[in-house]
Design brief:
The strands form four sheets. Strands 9, 10, 11, 12, 13 and 14 form a six-stranded mixed beta sheet that branches. A three-stranded antiparallel beta sheet has the order 1-8-4, with no helix packed on it. Strands 3-6-5 form a three-stranded antiparallel beta sheet, with no helix packed on it. The chain folds into two domains: 1-79, Immunoglobulin-like (Sandwich), CATH 2.60.40.1730; 80-192, Neutral Protease Domain 2 (Neutral Protease, domain 2). The protein has helices spanning 107-124, 168-183, 199-212; strands at 2-6, 23-24, 30-34, 38-40, 45-50, 57-62, 68-69, 73-78, 81-82, 86-88, 92-98, 133-138, 145-146, 151-155. Helix 1 packs across helix 2 and helix 2 (168-183) crosses helix 3 (199-212). 23% of the residues lie in helices and 28% in strands. It has three helices and 14 strands.
Amino acid sequence: MFRGGLGVPKKATMAPILSDTEVGGGGRRDIQTDHGLMCGGLMSFQGEVSDSPAPGLTTVEFRTSVPMVTYLTCFIVSDFQRLPPVNISQGFPFSVYSTPAQVNKTAYALELGSKVTEYYIDYFNIPYPLPKLDMIAIPDFVSGAMEHWGLVTFRETLMLYDPNISSTANQQRVALVVAHELAHMWFGNLNWTAHDGEVEFRTSVGYTEDVLS
């Protein structure tokens, strides 16, 4: 799996570096990869070009992004799979991805995440501004969870749930983390700040929304 973000230099793999609190002016980025792999980014697909730039490769074209701080950008190339997405009433798909072996453990996060998203759209009375919303469970993800806009990333233990073997405490933890990260689609992503000292404010608001949801 390839995972890349645009932010501080140690995360930079795909584009020129901006400060992680600097606003990118939107733009469109493509990914070139082997045929048949899942390519994820903050925006939805615009198209694919097979055998480009060479035989056996595919160029995946993403739609032009909205302006945002660069630490929210994320791209993933993998063999991950998903259950059928849920269509949010606002008119965009909500999907949850995992490794093929774990995809049956994503049903709870898919149901919960789609309902929490519907709740936040109604509660904030502010439409979700992107054309899709994905969550993805990554093995050994060091950050625990991260509110990448449109492609929210999680450590597997914080998103996957198996009703046959998982504890109630695990279910509650998944619910709390999912609700927290989705709250950031509004608090922290829409109302970004240019000062790292205000991260605590954005995070505390996220925890408040956990309780409300």
